[in-house]
Amino acid sequence: MQTAKLGYSTAPYGASGAALLSLFVELQHVPGQLAGELRIRIIDWYNRALIEDMPSEKY
């Protein structure tokens, strides 16, 4: 998470992805419905980012 914070000023999208990855890893050890919902939302964000940021993946 610290690396994501440091990199945000130069690469905000990559840093946001790094922060979400860090959160996703931490959520693997958190029980409960909210943690599960957050994991699903992070996976959805990742899938959308692949489609939107990598146009060649659309085809």
Give the SSE map.
Blueprint: H1 2-7, H2 12-27, H3 33-53
Helix pairs in contact: 2-3
Shape: flat
Specify the structural class.
mainly alpha
How far apart, in Å, are the first and last alpha carbons?
33 Å
Radius of gyration: 13 Å
Briefly summarize what is shown.
This protein has 59 residues and is mainly α. It has helices at 2-7, 12-27, 33-53.
Describe the structure.
The protein is an all-alpha fold and 59 residues long. Helix content is 73%, strand content 0%. The protein has three helices and no strands. It has helices spanning 2-7, 12-27, 33-53. The longest helix has 21 residues, at 33-53. The radius of gyration is 13 Å and the shape is flat. It starts with a helix and ends in a 6-residue tail after the last helix.
Characteristic terms for this protein:
single chain, 59 residues, mainly alpha, 3 helices, flat
